[in-house]
Structures are given as C-alpha cells and as structure tokens.
Amino acid sequence: MKLSKNITAFLIAGIVIIGILLRGNQYATWPRLGATFDEFAWVWQGMSILKEGVPRSWSYHPQYKDREIIQINGANFILVRPYLEHPPFFGLVAGTFAMLTGQSEFTDIQLPKIRMFSLILGTVSVFFVFWLAALMYGNFTGLLAALIYAITPTVAVGSRLMQNENFFIPMWLGMLICLWYYLKTNNRNLRTAVGVLGGLLILAKIPWIAGAISAAGILWYVKRVSDAWKVLLISLAIGSIYIFYGFYFDKTVFTGLMGLQLNRYDITFAGVYSLWLKPYLADRLFLDGWIYGGWLALLVLTSSVKKHWFLLFAVFSYAVLYAIGIPDEPGHGWYRYPFYPFLSIATAVVVREYIWPNPFYRFTFLLLVGLPLLSVTWGVSYGFSYFIYRGYILWSLISFLPYVARHKLSSRLTDVSFIAQCIFIFSLTVWAILGYNEQ
Fold first, then answer.
1. 106 neighbors 44 (Cβ within 8 angstroms)
2. What's 437's DSSP letter?
3. Quick check: is 267 in a domain?
4. 276: which residues sit within 8 A by CB, 6+ positions away?
5. CB 149 within 8 A of CB 18
6. Which long-range contacts (CB under 8 A, 24 or more apart) does 375-379 make?
7. Distance CA 134, CA 225 (A)
8. Nearest CA to 43 among 118, 103, 95?
9. Rounded to whole angstroms, how far apart are CA atoms 276 and 291?
10. What pLDDT is stored for residue 357 in this prediction?
11. What is the pLDDT of residue 423?
12. Does the pLDDT at position 156 exceed 80?
C-alpha cells in the first residue's frame, strides 16, 4: 500500500501524539517511586560531575571506600565517591536535564521532573521506529510498526523510567538509520557518525557495545569488511575513554568494580528463557500480548534471513550480549527494552505479509496478543470469566471460516471479523496502559 507524503506525515504525527498521551498518563506515579532507584543514580552521577568535578552516586558495592549514608524521599542511600561502576555519558545527559529544570541538589530530585526526559526519549523512539521500518519495508509498515511500539503496554509504561536502556534505544535506532543511509549513499560522514554514536553508547553503558557490534555485523554481511573495522575501531577508541576516566579518578576502585561486574551475576540459560516465562515490565510481572506476538513474529522472519537481514542482525547483536551478560535477575525488566523496537517492526511485517493471508498465523496472532491483554484488563478489573475467555477463542476461530465454507462471502466475513478483533485488541491495549497500577 502506497501512501502520499502528506498522509504519511499526518498519520505519524497522530501516532506520536498517541504515544505521548499514553506515556504521559500518570507517568510520575507508575512505575512507582522505588521501582528502581537507578533513576536517581544516573542523575546524581551527572550532577556531581558537573558541579563537583568528581562522580558521586549511590551504590552498595564494597569496593568503594568513601561512603556516606543519606536519606531522600524516605529511603536510605549509600553515596559513594568516586562513582565508577558505569561510564559517565548518560549520567551527564540526565544530570544536565535535571539541572536545566531547576534541580541543583541531590535532595531536589523529583520524579515528575526527571521523567520528563524519559518521555522525550520515548517519543523520539516512536518516530525512529517508524523511520527505520519505513526505510526497510515502506511507509505503511513503518506506520504500523510505530503504532505497535507506541501502544505496547510494557513499552509505554516502561519508557517512563529514567533508565539507561531508554536512552540506548533512540541512540541505537538513530545509528542504524545513519548506517542504512550510508549503505545507500556511501557518504563517509555517515559512516563516521555511526562509529561516533557507537562510541558514545559505550560511554553510556558498557553493554551498549552491542550497537557498534550490530553496525559492524551488518557491514560485514554486505561484504564491507573495511567499513566494519573502521566503525568498530572508531567506537572502541571513543569507548576506551572510560578506562582513562576510571584510572584517573581511582585505579584500585575502578579495576575492582570491573572485576565485580564481569562476575557479578549467576548467568545461566534461565536468563534467556525468562524472556518468555517471567514477563517483567520493571520490577513487576506483567502479561503483555504484544511482546509474545513480537517474539513469534521475529521467529517467522528468521525463515527468510536474506530478506530481513538488517533487522535480524540488529536483534542478534543484542541477543548475544543478553545471553552472555544478562542474568535471570528478578525485577530488572528494563534489560529487555532494547528488543522491543525490533519486535514491533517484526510484528508489523508479519501482520502485513503473513498474518493477513494466512488463517493459521492469524489465529495464533489473535490468541497470543489478545488473551494476555484480556488477563491484565478484564481479568484484573472483573475477575476471570470462562464465558469471555472461551468466547474470545471462538471469535478467533472465524479465521478458518474460508476452509469450511468456500465462498467469497466467507472470506469477506473473515476479514471483517479480523479487523473488528484488531480494534478490540487495540481497545484492550489502551485499557491496559491507562489502567496500569502496582497496588
């Protein structure tokens, strides 16, 4: 389906507005204060560098010797100095935003103010999902991907957090967009931009080396080996600043922390299959059908690597890092957030190319997405209902009507039913976001 530029611009503006409204609803209330105190850690890190010239934030790790206990918002924090367990870039960005909004002291930090920055990042991410998907698959798929990403409850609620992952997502998507244009134009400035962004991501958080690896992997796949090495070297050169940064402030503390980070968690296969079995939003479990549908869609796309290689290489790079370094850590749902833009794009592609013409995919999609959403909306508000549960499944079975009654009318009825069920799912999705709470 081809859309004019004006219609596309109008629709993406509407989708972005929907994303803003859903993310902005009770954004300072849910996730609740204390779902993760990392929100304070990043801001404090940046503020202290800007004001004192030395990074300071909260941490409970024993490697720190300069420790101070303070109480803020009724919670006790162990402030350490110099704070070196994470690179400084995201902290500087978050701290700058906090200070620009009038929060100049640690005790001034308020969630409504610092989470405004998260809303900005989330809004940019919705647009970048559209942009990247449109480049790969056309405007219609881009719009559908952006809509899915805008309304997925886990994404909409999770993107309210002042977390490094919510910074990584738009930066990574922007880097991949630059890479796509470089492959089309051979503009060396774009290649340099990809490398610089990759390096800045490493300076935001070490695991974000996945961004540079994804770019290098894509370039390697298209036999641009020299470009792959150049992007990787630029990224690593910039990222290595973190080593000098750590040694400058305290070599002993820094090396001790790096040793701790490398062997900090009990990493087993449980960390991988928990993606499906333990659907954490932040620190609470939340059944989100769009996430399950996204994993199915991604699996479908792996059957045609040559067609979807750009998307799959990006996901694969983070998946490898996730398997190597992310544990089955209770209450750390944000580790999964970087997967979700690509799950949204994969879902949009599968809806357009596979689900619409195939009753089996259609039926599976309706069950995977719809039933979990029923659980977190109707089930939470009114309790489990056999009638509603079974009725939804029977409604989904209309997907197979053309196999039972081979007539044009049955095909039309099936299509109308599917569209109606998608509208119903959309309503459940909005209900899930607006009704989300942790009481």
1. yes
2. -
3. no
4. 292, 295
5. no
6. 375/287, 376/153, 376/286, 376/287, 376/288, 376/432, 377/428, 377/431, 377/432, 377/435, 378/428
7. 26
8. 95
9. 9
10. 79
11. 96
12. yes
174 within domain boundaries? yes
Domain count, the chain: 1
In order of 63, 85, 254, 325, 380, the CA distances from 259 in angstroms are 10, 10, 9, 13, 44
Let me know if residue 420 belongs to a domain: no
Q: Using the 8-state DSSP alphabet, how is residue 280 labeled?
A: B
Amino acid code (one letter) for 97: F
Greatest CA separation found in the chain? 77
Instruction: For residue 309, give every residue at least 6 positions away whose Cβ sits within 8 Å of its Cβ, in sequence order, or none.
Output: 218, 221
Q: What is the spatial distance between Cα 152 and Cα 432, in angstroms, rounded to a whole number? A: 9
Query: Which pLDDT score, from 0 to 100, does residue 265 have?
Result: 63
Residue length of the chain: 439
Structural domain that includes position 56: 5-262
Q: What is the pLDDT of residues 79-126, one digit of tens each?
A: 999 999 999 999 999 999 999 999 999 999 999 999 999 999 999 999
Report how far apart, in Å, the C-alpha atoms of 392 and of each of 347, 373, 418, 424 are: 21, 11, 12, 10
Please, are residues 401 and 123 in contact by the beta-carbon 8 Å criterion? no
Asked if residue 416 has pLDDT above 90, the reply is yes
Q: Are the beta carbons of 214 and 302 closer than 8 angstroms?
A: no
Query: Does the global pTM surpass 0.85?
Result: yes
Q: Supply 170's token pair.
A: 């738009």
Let me know how many helices (H) and strands (E) the chain has, helices first. 20, 3
Residue-level pLDDT at 266: 61
Peptide bond into 327 cis (omega under 30): no
Structure tokens that stand for 260 in this block:
């701790």
Place of tokens 């560098």: 49
Could you give the CA distance from residue 242 to residue 171 in angstroms, rounded to a whole number?
19
Asked whether residue 205 is assigned to any structural domain, the reply reads: yes
Report pLDDT digits (tens) over 372-407.
999 999 999 999 999 999 999 999 999 998 777 766
Burial class (CB in 10 A: 0-12, 13-18, 19+), 33: middle
